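Lecture notes, unit on protein representations.

Consider one protein chain, 202 amino acids long.
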Amino acid sequence: MQLKQSFQKYPVTCSLIALCVIYYIGTSLLFSFDMSAAQGMAAGAFNPAYVRYGHQYYRLLTANFVHFGIMHLAVNCYSLYNMGTFIERLLPRKDYLIILLVSALATTGLPYLLYLMNGYGVSSVSGGISGVIFGLIGVVGALYKLYPHIFRDVAKALAINVAMMLAISFLVPSISLSGHVSGLIGGFLSAYVIIRFTHFQN
């Protein structure tokens, strides 16, 4: 009953979580519950060289759904639910969907542009919905930028967590710092443009 109520209240966030879970079950059946980098690539993970020379542009999107283990999936889905339901309450569904898509594409798209410019990340293999989660954090940043008197407390509460997550991303080589920062930028910019020029200004 509670699951049904959550889906009715937050259909976009719950559907995105469901896609992550279904994708993980599928890749686990095909490969293993804790995939190697090579298996992750076969499942649709992101590597810039594969995108460029193999013209496998689908990886810019599919990589967001590839998770390397049950803990990776569980932590991301938990964080996505917490952030996603908060943002989904605030924004119209269309705007929320646009921000999610931009955040997902920014998570892989900006690192891909870095690779094209200077070869950055040529041997990297990345996946997971965490870039989108950072994108949702970026939404809070945009809201604070536009309405500091309303969102100051929320932004302050998140700031410490963001700093810790970025520090972990920097210190742990297996975590994509560029993907997290790129998702954050994508979420912030898309939300700022949407909120600045649409319903919040009416």
